C-alpha cells in the first residue's frame, strides 16, 4: 500500500487562522493498492499543518484500518540543512522527523527531506500511515494463511505464520482487528 502523491491546499497562512491557532487541510491523495490507483479526498482541521494532516490521514483510513486509532505522535522535529542553501539560506533542504508511539509504548521513527517545510511534513506523515496500513494488511493476510495452515494440519507453516504475526504485533495493537476477523 502506498500513498504516493498528495496534492494539497491549506489555509495555514491566513492571518485569522494564525490568530485562532487553526489550520485547514484539503488534499487529494493518489493511492496505490494491489496495483490499482485510486483518488481519495482528505480534509481536517488542526492547530497547524502537521496536526491537520495527521488528523486528515487518520480520519480517512481509520474505519478500514482499525489499528490506526491506537497510534499517536510522540515527537516531531524539523531540521534545516543550511550548508546547502543559497546566500540567504532560504532554499535549504528541510528534514521532518516524526516519532510515533503505539498502544504498547513502542516507538517508530520516520523521516522525509525536501526543499519545502510543508512537503517534508506531509511526506513524513504519508510514510508513517503507509507503514501502519501495510503492517495491518500483512497481519490480515497472515491471519488467513494461519487459519488455512491449521485446517490443513501444516504445523511448519502454523509456526512460521505465528512468528511473523508476533513481529507485526509490535507495530501496533490489532485487538479490534482480531475481533472483526473472528466475526
Secondary structure: elements and pairs:
Elements: E1 2-10, H1 15-20, E2 23-33, E3 36-46, H2 49-61, E4 72-81, E5 93-101, E6 107-114, H3 117-151, H4 155-169, H5 175-182
Helix pairs in contact: 2-3, 3-4
General description of the model:
The protein is 42% helix and 32% strand. The chain is an alpha+beta fold. The protein has a three-stranded antiparallel β-sheet. It has a three-stranded antiparallel β-sheet with strand order 4-5-6, with helices on one face. It is elongated and about 70 Å long. Residues 9-16 have low confidence and may be disordered.
Using brief descriptors, characterize the structure shown.
183 residues; three-stranded antiparallel beta sheet; 6 strands; single chain; 5 helices; alpha+beta
Per DSSP E runs of 2 or more residues, the count of β-strands stands at: 6
**Mean of all residue-level pLDDT scores:** 82
Oligomerization state: single chain
Structural class: alpha+beta
Helix content bin = 40-55%
- Rounded to an integer in angstroms, the radius of gyration calculated over CA atoms is 19 Å
Per DSSP, what share of the residues sits in E-state strands of 2 or more residues? Answer: 25-35%
What count of helical segments does DSSP give? 5
Amino acid at each position: 500500500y502506498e500513498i504516493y502523491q498528495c496534492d494539497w491546499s491549506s489555509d495555514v497562512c491566513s492571518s485569522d487562522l494564525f490568530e485562532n491557532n487553526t489550520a485547514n487541510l484539503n488534499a487529494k491523495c493518489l493511492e496505490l493498492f494491489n496495483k490499482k490507483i485510486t483518488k481519495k479526498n482528505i480534509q481536517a482541521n488542526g492547530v497547524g499543518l502537521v496536526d491537520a494532516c495527521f488528523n486528515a490521514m487518520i480520519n480517512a483510513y481509520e474505519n478500514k484500518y482499525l489499528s490506526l486509532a491506537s497510534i499517536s505522535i510522540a515527537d516531531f522535529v524539523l531540521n534545516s540543512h543550511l550548508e546547502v542553501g543559497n546566500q540567504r539560506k532560504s532554499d535549504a533542504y528541510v528534514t521532518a522527523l516524526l516519532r510515533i508511539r503505539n498502544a504498547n509504548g513502542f516507538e517508530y521513527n520516520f523521516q522525509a527531506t525536501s526543499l519545502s517545510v510543508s512537503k517534508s511534513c506531509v511526506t513524513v506523515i504519508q510514510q508513517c500511515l503507509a507503514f501502519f496500513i501495510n503492517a495491518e494488511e500483512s497481519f490480515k493476510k497472515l491471519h488467513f494463511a494461519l487459519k488455512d495452515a491449521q485446517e490443513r494440519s501444516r504445523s511448519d507453516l502454523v509456526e512460521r505464520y505465528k512468528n511473523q504475526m508476533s513481529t507485526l504485533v509490535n507495530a501496533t495493537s490489532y485487538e479490534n482487528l482480531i475481533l472483526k476477523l473472528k466475526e
